Write the structure tokens for this entry.
Amino acid sequence: MYIDPPEKVSQEQITIDVREIEPLLEAPPMDLKPWPGAKITLKDGRQMYIREAKLEEAPMMIAYMKRVMEIERDFYDVVGARVLAELLGWQRKRLKDPYVLVGLINGQWVGFANGRLMSQDINISLHTMALARGGRIGAVMYYTKAYYAFEILGNKEWWATYESYNGWHRWGLGMAQPSYPWPEYQHELGGARVYYVTKKYWDSMVKNYARQMVGADLDFNVPDELVKANEVMIAPEEVLV
């Protein structure tokens, strides 16, 4: 848009360094407590290590999600596209206060969970995926990020929504999550309904339900050899969602 200035100016063109623009485009981060890393024994006996994803692992994860986008079943095409965008937003610093957690078994990437903080009080759940079958990996990853929200970050509310029938059945219905009135409240994933869990509800019921689904609890006493065995993440050769 061009409008003639109402006064004479000494300089008609101003050059702006992009480093001056970046602070306006990149959301100032909050001081998030890091996920400390945890291990858990899955239902089938395998041991999974859950850690924060590394930024240098983003290209590999994005490449995998491009393959997920090609699956026209159970809304994985939508999920793959949205997770890809979320990973790019994390990588390019265009997502406010994101967290990305990965589940690993002997270095193999088998679980994924991500979200972001709207504020100190509200944690936005984005996506949870199991990349390998068996062991209730998806349930473990969902429990993990809810645990992270309430037990480590001290959030007061957890906002989720669901693209698939399975996700809604397992967590929306399974956790008996109430929803805010729609369309007054909309989740950022397509403007869908906001299903929520409060800290009080988490403490009184949801935490125990999630533990029962998982079949074990998180163990934060992780031996060095397990950390080392999962230091390098390897993407699955096949897409088994």
Observations:
- The chain has seven helices and seven strands.
- The CA atoms of residues 38 and 217 lie 10 Å apart.
